[in-house]
Amino acid sequence: MYSVILTELGISIFNEGKLEKAFPFSNPVKEYLLVKNKESKLNELINYLASIQRGVSVSDESLLVILKKYSIDCYLMESSELDNIQATKPQIIVDSGFASNLQDTLGKLREFALGLSSSKVTEVSESPDLHIIQAINSLDEIDKIANGLSSRLREWYGLHFPELDNIIDSINGYAQIVLAGKRESLTKQVFEDAGFPESKVEMLSLISSKSRGGDISDVNLAIVQSIAKQILDFHELRKKLEEHVETAMQEIAPNLSAILGSAVGARILGRAGSLKRLASLPASTIQVLGAEKALFRSLKTGSQPPKHGLLFQHAMVHAAPRWQRGKIARAVAAKAVIAARVDVYGEGLNQTLLEKLNIRVNEIGKKYENPTEKDIRKPQSFRREGGNFGDRRREGGDRRREGGDRRREGGDRRREGGDRRREGGDRRREGGDRRREGGDRRREGGDRRREGGDRRREGGDRRREGGDRRREGGSSKYERPDSNKKRKKFGRR
Amino acid sequence: MKDQIQIKRERSLEEDNQSYFWIKSEGEKKLATENLVPGNQVYKEKLIIKKGVEYRLWDAFRSKLAAAIMNDLEYFPFENKSKVLYLGASTGTTVSHISDIVGPSGIIFGVEHASRVARDFLDRVASYRSNIIPILQDARKPKEYFSVFGKVDIVYVDIAQPDQTQIALDNCEMYLKKGGYFFLVIKTRSIDVTKSPRRIIEEETEKLKANFDILQSIDLYPYDKDHAMVIAKYKN
């Protein structure tokens, strides 16, 4: 009765509990993994087994598969035998001569485990998706830093040349001017080099000669200039990162980037942790990745679940009217997860995915062209919008310039929205009352229901307050924006 | 400063097992273990030398086992020569202290799946301590662990999964010896955020009762919020 036992340090053949032959591994980690992956050749072992010409029991499934490939008559051990091996493994290793005693065995096993674990860590660290995640996170980080630094630069250099802040939107151009030095040394050439059109150059030279700003000492100027230099460097780096993410995404996740775009796709990938894990997530999870706070609030309190998390940045979702966004986000998420799966398990770019998504989005656009009564009444979070408005103000670079028009329209739309919301507030108030009546009626029912009614009543009131708050918020927001007006004025040029 | 340090051996329930110590440092009574690898810090914890022996302070805010001790743990089976299966080794904070306790002739099988934290676990803990065998695998598949042999005295589980109790039970079935101890950290928030923590702890404890005698259940507040430690003994 021959048995073939696979251990971490080698393969041994026992006959009735006595060692027949041992095949130690010279490089345990490598060879053990080869066996486990069924890629081993194991010539010596196979020759030996072929020579004894008897059925053998085998302790490991992968090993069994290898042996069967060479038409060795073999079968898997019973579980009681396997348990026995498991319990006496150090002894088996000593008996096979892979180690000199139990203490030595332990040391060798530990070495094996360390080697194996290290090789796994190395393997994972090399996977390209982890590098994409680092790249996209760096990109977001750089945006954050550059934005903060940009407003600081505008403040500081603004002491010396305050008028510049309002004239130049692009932080890149601003930083280039700062690099040129004090107001006096700003020649037409500087402005032209920074890439401004003629009309602007004229105006800039005019204004710089009669600025209201104070003098700036050389020490201060030097610091301000190095900040400006940093910002320009960040801009360079950002461009590089963007390109890198783009190409890397095309390479490792072409389908995902076709559906989501490489930037959004990379961010989603970052949230999921790895491409493989992303491929194993349900679409509903992908839809709300990045909106965890809202999701858990919703699970806990039963409030409205989020329609989209990071997917909000997706062009299709972003551009859609509010009442369609949830539906479109769902469609995008559904296709995105299929795309991720194709990227991991399939091959090549699958064009039909994107086509189908486009068809579906068009369908949604047509079917839900107008908001229903319910959609209008839906309370929407004002705070978030307000926050974005504030944060984006100083957003850097050319993007802002291009974005200017869009945002202006956006502003108008939002203003209309504000009115609508205001009406909405009133209607909601009525709603609250109606619900209150409902509560009364329901109170006639059982106890539990009565409580429910009360709670709902409170809910109605709260919602009413909410409506008011939103109203105040709305008006204050739309009366405030001096800064907004300013940008408009210059943005048009 | 050195004069303030007092060491008191703590009695565990059955006998004096000399496994952890109370050390007075900065006017406070703090937990510590005797450093197996003198001079080696794992998580920038404080090292204190007293009578030629080096001790490592054991931070209850970072290690749930220490938190359980602070909250009156009654059973402490970790001792010299113990064999431990530790699921969820993470960066190895708790593992390092257990490694101090079980000593050079004990063994800890540290299982961890996430490669990012396993990196730190290998670098800071496993490569310095000869009694730790690191295993980078999914605790869901106990059959595939390489390098584990025999049955262990204690299974310690600290994994944040919705089905963590079932995973733990599967592992116990394969590797815990009869009459062995089972430490289960229940992270209620990773099981279900919508349910109340107390109810989850009750439900999870209920799942153990078929095969285990529940010895103690400890709330880890204030060291960890909504966490509990359940100590159980495998029925013979």
UniProtKB/TrEMBL annotation, chain A:
A Pfam family per the record? Nop
In terms of domain of life, where is this protein from? Archaea
Query: What is an example of a GO molecular function annotated in this UniProt entry?
Result: snoRNA binding
Chain positions covered by the region annotation Disordered: 370-493
Q: Where is the Nop domain positioned along the sequence? A: 252-381
> Mind telling me which GO cellular component terms the entry cites?
box C/D methylation guide snoRNP complex
- Feature: compositional bias, Basic and acidic residues: 370-484
Give the family, as the similarity comment puts it.
Belongs to the NOP5/NOP56 family.
Q: Please report the name of this protein according to its UniProt entry.
A: Ribonucleotide-diphosphate reductase subunit beta
TrEMBL record, chain B:
Keywords attached to this Swiss-Prot or TrEMBL record, sorted alphabetically, are:
Methyltransferase, RNA-binding, rRNA processing, Transferase, tRNA processing
**Family annotation (SUPFAM superfamilies):** S-adenosyl-L-methionine-dependent methyltransferases
- Output one GO BP term: box C/D sno(s)RNA 3'-end processing
Q: Name one Pfam family in it.
A: Fibrillarin
UniProt binding sites for S-adenosyl-L-methionine: T93, T94, E112, H113, D138, A139, D158, I159, A160, Q161
UniProt lists the family membership as follows:
Belongs to the methyltransferase superfamily. Fibrillarin family.
How this chain assembles, per its entry, is:
Interacts with nop5. Component of box C/D small ribonucleoprotein (sRNP) particles that contain rpl7ae, FlpA and nop5, plus a guide RNA.
Question: Could you identify this protein by its name?
Answer: Fibrillarin-like rRNA/tRNA 2'-O-methyltransferase
Identify the taxonomic lineage of the organism of origin: Archaea, Nitrososphaerota, Nitrososphaeria, Nitrosopumilales, Nitrosopumilaceae
